[in-house]
Design goal:
- By secondary structure, this protein is an alpha/beta fold.
- It folds into four domains: about 10-155, 3-Layer(aba) Sandwich (Alpha-D-Glucose-1,6-Bisphosphate, Chain A, domain 3); about 170-260, Alpha-D-Glucose-1,6-Bisphosphate, Chain A, domain 3; about 260-365, Alpha-D-Glucose-1,6-Bisphosphate, subunit A, domain 3 (Alpha-D-Glucose-1,6-Bisphosphate, Chain A, domain 3), CATH 3.40.120.10; about 375-450, 2-Layer Sandwich (TATA-Binding Protein).
- The protein has helices at about 20-35, 55-70, 80-90, 125-135, 155-165, 190-200, 225-235, 260-275, 290-300, 310-320, 345-360, 360-365, 390-405, 430-450; strands spanning about 10-15, 45-50, 70-80, 95-100, 110-115, 150, 180, 200-205, 240, 250, 260, 280-285, 305, 325, 335, 375-380, 405-415, 420-425.
- Helix 9 (about 290-300) links the parallel strand 12 (about 280-285) and strand 13 (about 305).
- The protein is globular and about 65 Å long.
Length: about 450
């Protein structure tokens, strides 16, 4: 079965336009609820969301769909995505739903679905849900006495805060550290500063005033300039930037220099290898991770296993191969000793633990390797299939030939938006720049031809 609605991370799109309409979400909930009902017990689903205006529309639509097929609904309000995975499992729910478009602007929204084990659903299960939707609602609706109920879950924040704090070494504190935390005006706007303060840090919170429109707007993990400036201005020891649903982390050291997910994975993996905690003999990352990370791990006798882009695919390989460290260069860090999906706060605490234990500044700890020159360009396209264009195919072949033996090229369509991403890396920075620019021009030209 193939999927039409689901992409690399659930369903995502422009709010109040298909598929992100109340009507479609109602049908998704009915189908997903039916798929996960088994046995005679009361079935439960937990629904979390970030701070987007459209969450007020999608939440009741999903709630109605689940209730109509006989599932009870627990509503949290704004909560990080990893909290939904954790709560789904700890509260013995049959299903979890996070309403979020992650790092996208407020105009977009999406949903991510978690199974009873707290992990995101597989491609195969998502395809089954779509098949149920295609078959219509015949036989799905519960009889009047069997309808579900909905209620607010009041203590969700406290549960998650304690869960996150438990990942930090019990004999350590953050006393003496000044930490800037950028919450992207998103789901962790109240939780992240609380976690850091309760562990002893002096916290400088920014982007913690969500209004429904300002999520990820010039702030957060995808726009870290504000974080870097705040770290320098406040003379902080470190800066932490989360995205809108707090499942990714980007760091700024005390000088305001950016530290990406590749460096974070390297720091944790090497530390855990030293202490005998690292499982699987390596790290799982995506095709986007820098060759510098691969070389560093190889020098330490560890392997880097690559997957397609998407933290869900990283998790699948981690589970299959027995790894406990994985993630993405963009800042999704999955530490399976603690959680089932990327968790920006837990990743931050593991980094802070290394800094505290070493007694060294962030600028020293956070430079595990020197990355090879790498350039990524994201190109919006108007429709059609630019990558099928003969001119683009020829440009890709030429680019691969230029980098042969000294680098690599990756060209892919985003699974969540109409964007083509072109990434090249290699020893020669000038060559890398030229390859990306030439290929971007070819794709733009093809898109213009097809649009016309």
């Amino acid at each position: 079965m193939t999927r039409k609605l689901f992409g690399t991370d659930g369903i995502r799109g422009l709010a109040n336009a298909r598929p992100m309409t109340a009507e479609t979400m109602l049908k998704v909930a009915m189908a997903a609820g039916s798929r996960f009902k088994n046995g005679g017990h009361r079935h439960r689903v937990i629904i979390g969301k970030d701070t987007r205006l459209s969450g007020y529309m999608l939440e009741p639509a999903l709630t109605a769909g689940f209730i109509s097929v006989g599932m009870d609904v627990l509503l949290t309000g704004p909560v990080p995505t990893p909290a939904v995975g954790m709560l789904t499992r700890s509260m013995r729910c049959d299903l979890g739903v996070m309403i979020s478009a992650s790092h996208n602007p407020y105009q977009d929204n999406g949903i991510k679905l978690f199974g009873p084990d707290g992990f995101k659903l597989s491609d195969a299960v998502e395809a089954e849900i779509e098949a149920i939707m295609d078959a219509g609602d015949g036989g799905l609706l519960a009889a009047p006495p069997a309808l579900g109920r909905a209620r607010r879950l009041d203590d969700y924040a406290g549960r998650y805060i304690e869960f996150v704090k438990a990942s930090f070494p019990g004999d350590r504190t953050l006393d003496g550290l000044k930490v800037v935390v950028d919450c992207a005006n998103g789901a962790a706007y109240a939780i992240a500063p609380t976690v850091l303060a309760e562990l002893g840090a002096e916290v400088v919170p920014i982007a913690v005033e969500p209004d429904g429109f300002n999520i990820n707007d010039g702030c957060g993990a995808t726009a870290p300039d504000a974080l870097c400036a705040a770290v320098v201005r406040h003379q902080a020891d470190i800066g932490l930037a989360l995205d809108g649903d707090a499942d990714r982390l980007i760091v700024a050291d005390e000088h305001g220099a950016i530290v990406d997910g590749d460096q974070l994975m390297a720091i944790v993996a090497l530390r855990w290898a030293e202490t005998g905690r690292l499982a699987g003999g390596g790290v799982v990352a995506t095709v986007m991770s820098n060759l510098g990370l691969e070389r560093l791990l190889a020098g330490a006798g560890l392997a880097l296993h690559r997957t397609p882009v998407g933290d869900r695919y990283v998790v699948e390989q981690m589970r299959g191969g027995g790894f406990n460290v994985g993630g993405e260069q963009s800042g999704h860090i999955i530490l399976s000793d603690f959680g089932t999906t990327g968790d920006g706060l837990i990743a931050a605490l593991q980094l802070l633990a290394v800094i505290v234990e070493s007694g060294r500044p962030a600028s020293e700890v956070c430079r595990a390797f020197t990355p090879l020159p790498q350039l990524l360009k994201s190109l919006r396209f108007n429709g059609g299939q630019p990558l099928e264009d003969a001119g683009v195919k020829a440009a890709i072949l030429a680019a691969e030939a230029s980098l042969s033996g000294c680098g690599r090229l990756l060209v892919r369509k985003s699974g969540t938006e109409p964007v083509i991403r072109v990434m090249a890396e290699g020893e020669d920075e000038i060559l890398v720049g030229r390859v990306v620019e030439d290929l971007a021009n070819a794709i733009a030209a093809a898109d213009a031809r097809h649009a016309g």
